[in-house]
Design a protein that fits this description.
The complex is a heterodimer of chains A (about 250) and B (about 450). By secondary structure, chain A is α/β, with parallel strands linked by helices. Chain A contains ten helices and ten strands. Chain A has a single domain, classed as P-loop containing nucleotide triphosphate hydrolases (Rossmann fold). In chain A, the strands form two sheets. A six-stranded mixed β-sheet of chain A has the order 6-7-8-3-9-10, with helices on both faces. Chain A has a four-stranded antiparallel β-sheet with strand order 2-1-4-5, covered by helices on one side. Chain A is globular and about 45 Å long. Chain B folds into two domains: about 60 residues; about 350 residues, no CATH class. In chain B, α4 packs parallel to α10, α6 packs antiparallel against α13 and α11 crosses α13. The chains are: A alpha/beta (about 250), B mainly alpha (about 450).
């Protein structure tokens, strides 16, 4: 693996805006193959915007996004997905009136792959989230929040992604479920070598899970380093951990 | 009780506002063109009173009968209902196949059956666009019109066709020479032309959703109608087109005389033969629509339509190309509308813009919504209820719209998601069996 030499995903000087409001003001970020990278920051720091701009919404005003060395900055969303960049979007966005089985099938529909590969992905997803197997015929909208999050991640995994983007997977979930989901992400990374970018407000969990972390403030990366290393820094503890707990 | 009274009072107030000018004051042009009017406050008061009383009645009914779902039926009864539900579709199909046999002597009922089936087909076609893909289309009648006019115009046009039989190079021969095959050759052509117009409508509305989409499609339907109405040289304008070739049994005309279908099979000629044939023709076309829809739903494209209805953003993130998905839904829905239009033209032998007003779009949309968006059986039942019901209340004359409206209101109160609001899943994912998993393990080692 030449992961250290050429990162799987490289973001260079990325700027993006909603109308006149600049959300990203020149962001640099690298993800090597096989890494879990956490992106943390307060509400409105631009974390989700950064993740969405990989899919071209909003489109970058300046800078580049390189995936496996290829410039994907101007690619339409569906073509980005076909390069096997999968995401579990903010708010999960599962298909509420379609069954769990159909939701999972949708994850595999648009990306090329044989029936055998598809069956393997499904087996992997169901091993990771056995709860989904019990719910296969149920409508997605009738699942609990935690199960919906599992379904959103499972759906993303059905395309056998090279890079998995997770936007706030712990949002609105009970601590126990959050732990289960984070354990599943760790297992995917250790056992399958899956590369993950995780956007989180829950800095404690995310930094413990991640190999490396980036801290975002007002559309800029202000700090980066190893996950545990960031967790020890007093300014991080003050801004995102103790402060968050007191609030 | 106070709530019911308050609600009834508000309804009555709204009715007063609405009806004050509509009923309270009657205007008419006098003998020399001047406006004369008189007041009808008695009728107005009666109307407002009726609304007040009706509102109370509806609210009370709702309290008594409303929570139907809450009543636990015994397991046996529920199982019986489930079996009946499963048998309903095959039973309807068998009944439809037997209608011309049972009602052979009742021309009126056969005609009505053809009409109902035409709307079943239109409902199923629109269901692809509205029910599956979730694109609210208020101008579906445009494709019906495109199909009808395509058939009517092409069948009578001297447009040259390449003639392959006499070898190369092509010898041109005219559409008029299609003779008895006109319908069978031009039916797919009409469908394809309608599909083309579906795509033409699809492009400008790619970014629109919901209400905005509805307005543009509504306008589209009106534009097509107005173009037909005003392009007199081509379409004959309000006079319409007559002398449209009637359908043939695969080339054999349904006419008296020795070359007719009756003579061929050796029975005396009867005009009912054509009705029976038209009945089976539209039944076959409708079933084709149904079969195609059921098949498409199981394919990635159909799944993408449904997913697009649920969440466009999520679809994009999963690699679905929204542009092609939307255009294909418009095109395929329009194509079936075009088939139905060509059938309509050949059945009537005469078409005019009057048949393609917004009211038709609204009726078809009502059938889809009433049936339960996306449910094939529901759409069929709704078409039978709406078109059949219209005829049933023909005797009530001016009151039938009132009855119709009342039934719609009651239905939307008790079954807000349509007659059949249940959506059957199409994917049954299985974990691999032991055999296949061991095969894959072999591959690893």
């Amino acid at each position: 693996m030449s992961a250290a030499a050429t990162p799987l995903l490289a973001i260079r000087g990325l700027r993006a805006a909603y109308g006149k409001i600049e959300a990203l003001k020149g962001v640099d970020l690298d993800i090597a193959t096989g890494e879990i990278v956490a992106l943390i920051g307060a509400n409105g720091a631009g974390k989700s915007t950064l993740m969405m701009s990989i899919f071209g919404r909003p489109r970058a005003r300046a800078g580049h996004i390189l995936f496996g060395g290829r410039d994907i900055t101007a690619l339409p969303a569906h073509e980005v997905a076909r390069l096997r960049i999968a995401q579990s979007p903010e708010g999960r966005r599962i298909f509420p009136r379609m069954s769990v089985a159909e939701n999972l099938q949708m994850g595999a529909d648009a990306t090329p792959g044989s029936a055998a590969e598809r069956a393997m992905s499904l087996e992997r997803v169901l091993k990771l989230f056995p709860r989904l197997e019990e719910r296969m015929a149920q409508r997605g909208g009738t699942l609990s929040g935690g199960e919906q999050q599992m379904l959103a991640i499972g759906r993303a995994l059905m395309s056998r992604p090279r890079l998995l983007l997770l936007d706030e997977p712990s949002l609105g979930l009970a601590p126990l479920i959050t732990r289960q989901i984070f354990a599943a992400i760790r297992a995917l990374n250790r056992e399958d070598g899956l590369t993950v970018l995780i956007v989180e407000q829950n800095a404690n969990h995310a930094l413990r899970l991640a190999h490396r972390g980036y801290v975002m403030v007002n559309g800029l990366i202000t700090m980066s380093g190893g996950g545990m290393e960031l967790l020890q820094r007093p300014e991080i503890r003050a801004a995102y951990l103790e402060g968050g707990r007191r609030a | 009780m106070a709530f019911i009274l308050k609600k009834a009072a508000i309804s009555a107030l709204v009715a007063l506002g609405l009806f004050f000018l509509m009923i309270g004051i009657r205007t008419e042009a006098g003998s020399s063109g001047q406006l004369i009017y008189w007041t009808r406050f008695g009728e107005l008061a009666a109307m407002v009173g009726a609304v007040f009383a009706g509102s109370i009645v509806i609210e009370l009914l709702r309290r008594w009968i409303g929570p139907v779902g809450g009543v636990e039926l015994p397991a046996g009864v529920r199982a019986t209902f489930a079996t009946l539900g499963r048998l309903l579709a095959p039973a309807l199909l068998i009944f439809a196949l037997l209608v011309p046999v049972i009602f052979y002597k009742e021309r009126y009922l056969l005609d009505l059956g053809i009409l109902v089936l035409t709307y079943v087909m239109l409902g199923w076609g629109l269901n692809i666009v509205v029910g599956l893909a979730g694109l609210l289309d208020l101008g579906y009648v445009a494709f019906y019109a495109v199909g009808a006019y395509s058939y009517a115009l092409l069948a009578q046009s001297p447009l040259p066709l390449p003639h392959l039989v006499d070898g190369f190079p092509f010898v041109a021969f005219s559409m008029e020479q299609l003779g008895p095959w006109a319908f069978w050759v031009l039916l797919p052509v009409s469908g394809l032309l309608a599909a083309l117009w579906g795509v033409i409508l699809g492009f400008p509305v790619l970014r629109l959703r919901g209400d905005y989409l509805a307005i543009v499609t509504l306008a589209f339907g009106e534009i097509i109608r107005l173009v037909i109405l005003n392009w007199q040289d081509l379409t004959g304008g309000p006079n319409g087109i007559s002398g449209i070739p009637r359908p043939t049994v695969f080339g054999i005309p349904l006419t008296p005389g020795e070359h007719g279908f009756a003579a061929m099979i050796g029975v005396p000629f009867s005009p009912t033969h054509r009705l029976v044939f038209l009945f089976y023709l539209i039944l076959a076309l409708a079933l084709l629509t149904n079969w195609a829809t059921i098949r498409l739903r199981r394919l990635p494209i159909g799944r993408a339509w449904e997913a697009m209805r649920e969440d466009e953003v999520a679809c994009r993130a999963l690699g679905i190309n929204i542009t092609t998905t939307k255009l294909s839904a418009f095109a395929i829905g329009a194509m079936f509308g075009g088939f139905a239009g060509a059938f309509f033209a050949t059945r009537q032998g005469f078409i005019s813009p009057e048949s393609f007003t917004f009211q038709e779009s609204a009726l078809v949309l009502a059938i889809v919504v009433l049936g339960g968006m996306g449910s094939q059986l529901g759409v069929a039942l709704a078409a039978i209820a709406m078109i059949g019901g219209f005829e049933l209340f023909r005797g009530l004359d001016q009151f039938r719209m009132l009855v119709f409206g009342g039934v719609m209101v009651l239905l939307m109160i008790w079954r807000p998601r349509g007659l059949i609001g249940h959506r059957a899943p199409t994917v049954f994912l299985q974990k691999r069996t032991e055999i296949s998993s061991s095969l894959v393990k072999e591959g690893h080692g």
